[in-house]
């Protein structure tokens, strides 16, 4: 299943231009309509806002954030994160693939990298994500990695299920 086209690239607080660009891109953030700035799906961050966000995330052991970058040219194609969510009492994941890079299997590979980070480095036993079942393409990528939809908006991946899917 693993393709090794991507790696997790942790930016520092002076390398946030890509995040700012990614969250402001209308095509990339189209899936997020109804949220973001004025319901546009996008978030228009100043560099200072991005740095403040980064300081909050980088100083918290219950949070992980990285760019997804291609091995062949070191170009970022998206981002991933893990964070503890009190509402779900679970570690939730997030993944965004830049619109111009979708359709290449990068979401599946990014989720594999994130699962490996969660299970083998952070010591978690399960991770989850929340999005509606009508996001078919996203659902397929998550299911290929081993996530199981347990409700209309929640998918869970256990370490055990990930290892079964990885063999």
Describe it for me?
Helix 3 (106-121) packs across helix 4 (136-145). The chain has a single domain (6-166), classed as Aminopeptidase (3-Layer(aba) Sandwich). The protein has a four-stranded antiparallel β-sheet, with helices on both faces. Strands 5-7-6 form a three-stranded antiparallel β-sheet. The chain is 32% helix and 25% strand. The protein is globular and about 40 Å long. It has five helices and seven strands. It is of the alpha+beta class and 167 residues long.
- Report the structural category: alpha+beta
CATH architecture: 3-Layer(aba) Sandwich
**CATH topology, anyone?**
Aminopeptidase
> Order of SSEs, N→C?
EHHEEEHEHEEH
Q: The biggest beta sheet, please?
A: 4 strands, antiparallel
Mean pLDDT score, rounded? Answer: 94
List how many beta strands DSSP finds.
Answer: 7
In one word, what is the shape?
globular
The radius of gyration computed from the alpha-carbon positions, rounded to a whole number of angstroms, is 15 Å
Major sheet: order of its strands? 1-2-3-4
Whole-number tally of structural domains: 1
Distance between the termini: 8 Å
CATH C-level label: Alpha Beta
Stretches where pLDDT is under 50 for at least 5 consecutive residues are none
How would you name the CATH homologous superfamily?
Answer: Gcn5-related N-acetyltransferase (GNAT)
Helix content: 25-40%
Percent of residues in beta strands: 25-35%
By DSSP (H or I, 4+ residues per run), the number of helices equals 5
